[in-house]
Specification:
CATH topology of the largest domain: Rossmann fold
Distance between the termini: 57 Å
Number of strands: 21
CATH architecture of the largest domain: 3-Layer(aba) Sandwich
Structural class: alpha/beta
Bound molecules: zinc ion
Helix content: 25-40%
Number of domains: 3
CATH class of the largest domain: Alpha Beta
Number of helices: 12
Shape: globular
Low-confidence stretches: none
CATH superfamily of the largest domain: ANL, N-terminal domain
Radius of gyration: 23 Å
Largest sheet: 6 strands, antiparallel
Length: 453
């Protein structure tokens, strides 16, 4: 069959079978390259006695071992493909971006020129699904962080790929000697000045920019879409973005949740709050797996998201667990008819489940419940313990919008009990004590201050 790489419309119009066939062929080619030039997988496969030529397609994929985030963090250089005989564009490093991690030194992910071109193809497909185009003016509100992350670096590539205009506000904590970062008010001014149609950034910062635009009575009426990423966004938070866009008289009130990661790139929703399409199945394969056995789960069953790169030349990851629990659907999308894998939420970060007072709770559910309360300007949930023998304490820190503090406190207590079955202590503080956009790239909504066990 002929390749549809490079032809967005043809790529998105394929049948599920045609996509699976293309993915199997791409997998064979990717594995052949790894067998020659990927230090980590060569070692793993030899150790496991795995004959890689016997992996013929997607049906054999589960015979490959899972790759954990810890394995990548331990030796990121070993995950780079090194093949001196490849064409220059498949060897030259075009950019290094970093994955978030718990360590002080984030993990580098290497992209060759080939990978940047592939990412721009993925961005074109994503834009076609999500309805972005060359008439858009994108206001990039992601910060340039000390270790640059994909979200910032790739914003320009998304605009380049579709011929859109882009302006970067460069918000966030100042570092370095050059005073390049801009304030929140400057970000609002640039959105208005350039008549941005798309506001593109971390969910909590986009919310803060819209709130500030209301206060400043800025004209941001050209905005039609908020494209948010970088942190879990709840239905309540997305609804609030829509409410703010209505209050601001924006041209549209759509919220596009750009689920993705440095390793994954961005996925695309064909409708608001819908599942996320894998926009470029020739580049990427997605599955939900049992993290213990490595076995793929039946369609629709929730498990760990495992992603497999099918056409990369820098850092290459196979069956990589990025730490999210989701379901994966195949077949045609009931909404838009496109095929390829779809990630079905809610996306739960596996590491985010925590034990409080002996109960396993999902803080995301609590944060969602709190985000629904209309009278909170900011909020933060803290778990703490005074000493090893003291009981856990669940504290909800809140900043009001100037209403009745007692009534607000009662609503917070009720919402917390409803969400996680634990009674909190409520502390009223100033908004800036929870989230100061001049100092923090995003709001930290949940903090575990207990001493490590
Ligand atoms: Zn769809």
């Amino acid at each position: 069959m002929t390749s549809t790489l490079g032809d967005v419309a043809a790529s998105l119009a394929r049948s599920p079978d045609a996509i699976a066939e293309a993915q199997s062929a791409a997998l064979r080619a990717m594995l052949a390259l790894c067998a020659r030039g990927h230090a980590y997988y060569r070692r793993e496969w030899t150790g496991a006695g795995l004959d890689i030529a016997s992996i013929r397609g997607l049906d054999d994929l589960a015979r490959l071992p899972l790759t954990t985030k810890d394995a990548l963090m331990a030796e990121p250089e070993a995950f780079r493909l090194r093949l001196p005989d490849l064409p220059l564009e498949e060897r030259a490093i075009a950019e290094v971006i970093h994955t978030t991690g718990s360590t002080a030194m984030p993990t580098p992910v290497y992209n060759t020129t080939h990978d940047v071109l592939a990412y721009m193809f993925q961005a074109r497909c994503m834009a076609a699904i999500a309805g972005l185009g060359e008439h858009d003016v994108i206001a990039n509100l992601f910060p340039l962080t000390p270790a640059p992350m994909g979200a910032f670096q790739r914003s320009a590539q998304n605009a380049f790929a579709i011929g859109a205009a882009i302006v970067s506000a460069l918000p966030g904590a100042p570092f370095g000697a050059f005073a390049i970062q801009r304030s929140l008010d400057e970000a609002v001014r640039l959105v208005a000045l350039h008549r941005a149609t798309v506001v593109w950034g971390v969910t909590s910062f986009v919310r803060r920019v819209l709130l500030r635009a209301l206060e400043l009575k800025a004209d941001v009426t050209a905005v039609r879409l908020c494209a948010v990423a970088g942190e879990a966004s709840s239905p309540a938070l997305r609804e609030e973005l829509r409410r703010l866009m209505r209050e601001l008289g924006c041209a549209g009130q759509r919220v596009f949740d750009r689920y993705g990661s440095t390793e994954l790139g961005a996925l695309a929703q064909c409708r608001e709050d819908g599942p996320w399409h894998n926009p470029a199945p020739d580049l990427l394969h997605l599955a939900a797996v049992d993290a213990e056995t490595g076995q793929p789960l039946p369609e629709g069953e929730r498990g760990w998201l495992a992603l497999t790169h099918l056409n990369r030349r820098g850092t290459v990851l196979l069956r990589f667990l990025q730490g999210d629990v989701v379901a994966v659907e195949r077949g045609r999308c009931p909404d838009c008819g496109r095929a390829g894998e779809r990630v079905v939420g809610p996306v739960v970060r596996a590491k985010d489940l925590v034990k409080v007072k002996g109960m396993l709770i999902n803080p995301a559910v609590l944060l969602e419940e709190l985000a629904r309360l209309p009278d909170l300007a900011e909020f933060q949930v803290v778990v703490r313990r005074d000493n090893a023998l003291a009981p856990d304490e669940l504290v909800v820190r809140v900043a009001g919008r100037g209403g009745d503090e007692l009534a607000m406190t009662a609503r917070v207590v009720a919402a917390t009990r409803r969400a996680v079955g634990v009674s909190p202590r409520v502390e009223c503080v100033a908004a800036g004590e929870i989230y100061d956009p001049a100092r923090q790239p995003k709001a930290v909504r949940f903090v575990d201050r207990r001493p490590a066990p």
